[in-house]
Design a protein that fits this description.
The complex is a heterodimer of chains A (111) and B (309). Chain A has 111 residues and is mainly β. Chain A is built from two helices and eight strands. Classes of the chains: A mainly beta (111), B alpha/beta (309).
């Protein structure tokens, strides 16, 4: 990621516009043993969070405000969501609601 | 159930289970457990009352290491049910019929369970309502039910209530019945004689078994409040894939085994996920339950039978 950012910084203004997605990071949250790991993640606006279910039981990723909502994810299934705006996004598994987590989205640098 | 049967002593009498042969059979009188006798005697006596079966957590479609053939063990369970000498009145299924709410999984489950040639009263588990519109469960089993799929019916003077505590769950919480269903429970019970035996069945335990794993129903106590005045209340659940029982006043809580895979005892593992046991131990941890009321004795007996001893 840092490498990508440096390349983007080094690019010409024109290229920078095209390469803008390279600023966005992809952050993984593992679902393991009925927990979201890490339980709280801080990302920048524009970043994408990818949840991967490693359990033998399906889970969902459901935002408390329904800002995002996955289908039931079977073993090894993934769900991703790109956080465009800053804010705190608590979520849970709608099948096992004692499983909770949150994504904290900070404003992207330079914006 | 006639009113003359009612009396303060009889109200205290609840009959449950103890280990005997292939099943568990307890007697509890005034809160003190006694052995009722061997299963054969109980089965002979059962012919005079109402006997129904409970099957739970068949998870058709599950193929992970804890049991690569959940369909096969459901077939075995139904095979054993077919072999019971005294035909039960009907069967209840306390949810998680399928693993992923797929049409094919419901089809397979139907095909196998219908082999028992018994009426089946279902309530959904969280694994049965995974499709966005809950279409598959609703169309197969939810016709005539209210709200998220709850309903009641009567058999041999016993009032049965099938509840749904797996829908619209809130983050950080446990199972939930919701306001609308609680109001219906109150209405459904209004005007019924306190001597009417009540059987409540739902997927997630209605009492708090282990909140750290979400094993409980956050508004279960409110439902039980409406049941307080009844002399005999039996609450049958699944979800936790193991036999667990509690008796509190006139209420007996009981959970049935799964036919698919065992789950660990509360807190005994990092998570409540499927528990892998040696192959020769698996069938001893799967099974079904049979529940009997003997009219005129206000007696309830629950026999848990594993697929293999």
């Amino acid at each position: 990621m840092h490498l990508k950012r440096m390349i983007a910084l080094g690019a010409t203004a024109g290229l920078l516009a095209i390469a803008n997605p390279a600023w966005a990071a992809e952050i993984e949250v593992k679902i393991d043993n009925f927990t979201f790991n890490p339980q709280q993640v801080t990302v920048k606006a524009g970043d994408t969070v990818v949840w991967v279910n490693h359990d033998d039981i399906p889970h969902t990723v459901t935002s408390k405000t329904l800002a995002f909502r996955s289908k039931a994810m079977d073993t090894d299934d993934k769900f991703s969501f790109t956080f465009a705006k800053p804010g705190t996004f608590p979520y849970f598994c709608s099948l096992h609601p004692h499983m909770t987590g949150s994504i904290v989205v900070e404003a992207a640098a330079g914006k | 159930m006639t009113d003359r049967d009612e009396g303060p002593n009889r109200r205290k009498v609840l009959e449950c289970m103890t280990w005997a042969g292939t099943g568990v059979l307890w007697t509890i009188a005034g809160g003190v457990p006694h052995s009722l006798g061997i299963v054969d005697e109980a089965l002979a006596a059962e012919a005079k009352g109402l006997t129904f079966l409970q099957i739970s957590d068949s998870h058709v479609g599950f193929d992970k290491p804890a049991n690569p053939n959940a369909k096969g063990t459901l077939e075995e369970a139904i095979g054993r049910i077919k072999a019971i000498p005294v035909k039960p009145a009907f069967m209840i299924h306390t949810g998680d019929i399928t693993h992923l709410s797929k049409d094919k999984e419901f089809d397979d489950a139907d095909k196998i369970i219908s082999e028992a040639r018994l009426d089946v009263h279902y309530v959904p588990g969280e694994h049965d309502i995974l499709d966005p519109d809950v279409k598959f469960y609703r169309e197969r089993y939810g016709r005539g039910a209210l709200g998220s799929g709850y309903y009641s019916f009567d058999a041999n003077g016993v009032h049965f209530m099938g509840l749904v505590n797996v829908a619209n769950l809130k983050g950080g919480g446990m199972g939930s019945l919701g306001r609308e269903q609680l109001e219906w429970i109150e209405r459904d019970l209004a005007g019924r004689s306190a001597s009417t035996p009540i059987v409540v069945f739902a997927h997630i335990p209605l009492w708090t078994v282990y909140p750290q794993w979400g094993w409980g129903t956050e508004d279960g106590a409110q439902a039980l409040g409406h049941l307080k005045r009844f002399g005999s209340v039996t609450v049958l659940n699944g979800h936790i894939h193991q036999v667990m029982q509690k008796v509190e006043g006139n209420v007996t809580f009981h959970t049935a085994r799964s036919t698919a895979f065992p789950q660990p005892a509360p807190g005994a593992a990092p998570s409540p996920g499927p528990m892998k046991v040696p192959d020769d131990k698996l069938r001893g941890m799967l099974g079904t339950a049979s529940i009997t009321f003997k009219q005129g004795e206000q007696r309830l007996a629950i026999i848990d039978t594993p697929l293999q001893n």
